[in-house]
Automatic annotation (TrEMBL):
One of its GO terms (cellular component) is cytosol. It is found in: Cytoplasm. This is SsrA-binding protein. Its main location: cytoplasm. It comes from Fulvivirga sediminis. NCBIfam families: PRK05422.1, smpB.
Length: 155
């Protein structure tokens, strides 16, 4: 019998590529997510969009908003809401440090990567970031182009 390929995967690594272009990352943190119902099944299928996501504090707790997790196809009426706010799970010391930095320096906290760790838990990598100006974005594009040209010359 041929081995059947499963639609669920533990090798999930979903990146927010636009974030590196729009923001300059200062520090990154790995947080757990409080998920409900069929959300983990949709994540294992890779049906997640991080583009519009951002993090905010509410009563000393950290939440992520704007992450779109597509409803699970076989979920029936047990399915989850697609764009609900999800609580991020970090240690209290890390939360306090992040909140102080966000309030003082005008930094923001954005989701940069969603992955499943070796224990099978969904983790969200959030980055403490500062928005880039237009000239910084142009410099980033120029650096990528020169790096690409150097790679072509080597081969």
């Amino acid at each position: 019998m041929a081995k059947e390929k499963s639609r669920f995967s533990n090798n999930i690594n979903i990146k927010n590529r636009k974030a590196r272009y729009e923001y300059e990352f200062i520090d990154t943190y790995i947080a757990g997510m409080a998920l409900k119902g069929t959300e983990i099944k949709s994540i294992r299928e890779g049906k997640v969009n991080l583009m519009d996501g951002y993090c905010y504090f509410s009563k000393g707790e950290l939440f992520v908003k704007g992450i779109h997790i597509t409803p699970y196809a076989q979920g029936s009426f047990y399915n989850h809401e697609t764009n609900r706010d999800r609580k991020l799970l970090l240690k209290k010391k890390e939360l306090d440090k992040i909140e102080i930095k966000i309030n003082e320096k005008g930094l923001t906290l954005i989701p940069s990567r969603l992955f499943i760790n070796d224990r099978g838990l969904a983790k969200l990598e959030v980055a403490l970031a500062k928005g880039k100006k237009l000239h910084d974005k142009r410099n980033t594009i120029k650096e990528k182009d020169t790096k690409r040209e150097l790679e072509k010359i080597k081969f």
